[in-house]
Write a structure and sequence with these properties.
Length: 415
Amino acid sequence: MNAPVQARSQQFRSSSRLAGIGVSEILKITGLAADLKRQGRDVIILGTGEPDFDTPEHVKDAAARAMQAGATKYTALDGTPELKAAIRAKFRRDNGLDFALDEITVAAGAKQILFNAMMASLEPGDEVIIPTPYWVTYADIVLIAGGRPVLVPCQEANGFRLAADDLARAITPRTRWLMLNSPSNPSGAAYSEADYRPILDVLIAQPHVWLMVDDIYEHIVYDDFRFVTPVAIEPELRARTLTVNGISKAYAMTGWRIGYAGGPSALIRAMAIVQSQSTSCPSSISQAAAIAALDGPMEIVRQRCRSFQARRDHVVAALNQIGGISCRRPEGAFYTFASCAGIIGSTTPSDELISSDVDFATYLLKTAGVAVVPGSAFGLAPYFRISYATSTSELEEACRRIAEAADALRLKEPA
């Protein structure tokens, strides 16, 4: 008789490409805080990068009209011609860039734009330079696509901006991309033309390195800071730059899931192939809404930006009043990235050692009911990120609680 066939294990086995990749630390902390709230705890969540404002009425009206008109079918794979025309006009108007329609792509959020680009361009082992602190998704997308993230620390003394010398040292023959984000999540740091210039000079001398620039916070800048995107400074890099943007942050449209980019047509075509076998076209209704956002009035965006600036000023001032904490004044986005170096080494009232920014964030959540994200999640410690995209009253209360919790700590006695 034949030997019995050994039963296969029914236990799930994840693919090797997911090794070392998990759910975002931001989502974990937000989820834990939400669980505590459901249990009746009074928790203020400052971890989510999402405006508390509603989508503008004229944008919602455009979506309703599209539904009533029957625009509920599949669209062109990577964006309707009408939306691409609105994006083209936006690039011309705001950035001085002129892209043909076949040099523009639209996807279900800027995150999918990044994913499509990495999947379309990376070979196993290709390197992608990512300045830290960085949005956590950047490195994980590179890993999923088979690449190797090369993390380059950006020091607070340099405004959390990449230094040209550090970039030059990080480049190897395997370098495929440099990823830049301005204004930055999580630090709020932004690059002026003078800040960009030495970095772009390094890239000009390294023709095998492509540039991916994430401009998603373009319209959220403060104190008369002038936003500029790299290709507008150095047209020579146009043929190897992908300029990424979206509607989620400036227009409070995070749930509509529309991101877009302009870049070389060959890259855009390759990205469309990736998208064709994943999500296919973005939502038809969301695309109609995006046209209204991009073509519509900007005063509401400017008004909300002024509100964010007032919140930033309050949070920065409050944090800098707390012993052991120091906070740089960000140029844009809606995050503070504060140092808690002076807290490290202290002990809690229950005699637990605060040995890292993760410990401090955990202490704040459990003791003060305030959810922040530790800087180590973004590749740079010991810091913590606060999203001030919430009400002023919640921010005031959160800062009061953080101050109270910090004051309750005591420095570890010397040996």
